Amino acid sequence: MNELVFFLYILIISSSLLISLKISKEALISIICLQAILVNLFVTKEIPIFGLLATASDAIAVGITLGLNLLQEYFGKIEAQKTIWISFFCAIFYSIVSKLHVLYIPANENIFVSNCFDIILNSTLRLIMASLIVYIIVQNIDCQLYSYLNKKFKNRYFILRNYGSTFITQFLDTLLFSFLGLYKLNSNFSSINTIVQIIIVSYTIKLIVIFIATPYLALSKKIINISKT
């Protein structure tokens, strides 16, 4: 069941990026910002998939990077850089208001719902800070790397350029978050071996997303005609 949901996830994320690109630049920026919020919300859920234990946010993490690559492909590097900071601000806004939200004292008849919010939204400060720091570092690196590959291959080989940038930056994303956010967070993450296993599993899941989503997004070259501005 989880594997089926996972593949539907990839289809929905990829289709949403293409549809948003078709609608407008602003729509694509909006879906990237939405994913930047959701990735911080969904990361707290762990799922068994392909016999491995992963977080439910790996597909969305890849979707953000692929969305930014699409934005740069059609609207230029400057727009991608702006969107990185816009989405970063959205993630900070979500982090702050979610913390304020759990501070509300609930009505007696609403305690159960309030407790659910507490469980979902009460990520540790370290996880929040690690997520934000890694996000801004990795997406800026991807922006620069994709721009370099764009010039290197003279705007050809869309699939290879996306593979090249996302393979590198998603590995960096997984590596940095595992150590900054998880290492010695509690007794479950006190071992280097455990962290290495987490990195291998998370990166493997991301590779599956990249391999499937990137050729699908290449359809944009055939069905969408947008001049770079």
List the helices and strands and how they pair.
Layout: H1 2-23, H2 25-42, E1 46-49, E2 52-55, H3 58-75, H4 77-101, H5 111-121, H6 125-152, H7 158-182, H8 192-217, H9 220-223
Antiparallel strand pairs: 1-2
Helix pairs in contact: 1-2, 1-3, 1-8, 2-3, 2-4, 3-4, 3-6, 3-8, 4-6, 6-7, 7-8
Descriptive notes:
- The chain is mainly α and 229 residues long.
- Helices cover 77% and strands 3% of the residues.
- The protein has nine helices and two strands.
- Strands 1-2 form a two-stranded antiparallel ribbon.
- Strand 1 and strand 2 (52-55) form a beta hairpin.
- Helix 7 (158-182) packs antiparallel against helix 8.
- The longest helix has 28 residues, at 125-152.
- The protein is globular and about 60 Å long.
- The mean pLDDT is 91.
Which descriptors would you attach to this protein?
mainly alpha; two-stranded antiparallel sheet
From the spread of the alpha carbons, the general shape counts as globular
Give the strand content. under 5%
Q: Give the H and E element order.
A: HHEEHHHHHHH
Mean pLDDT: 91
Radius of gyration: 18 Å
Q: How do the strands line up in the largest sheet?
A: 1-2
The number of strands is: 2
Note the total helix count: 9
Q: What is the helix fraction of residues, given as a range? A: over 70%
Task: Output the structural class.
Answer: mainly alpha
How many strands, what sense, and barrel or not for the largest sheet? 2 strands, antiparallel
Query: Unreliable stretches, pLDDT < 50, 5 or more residues?
Result: none
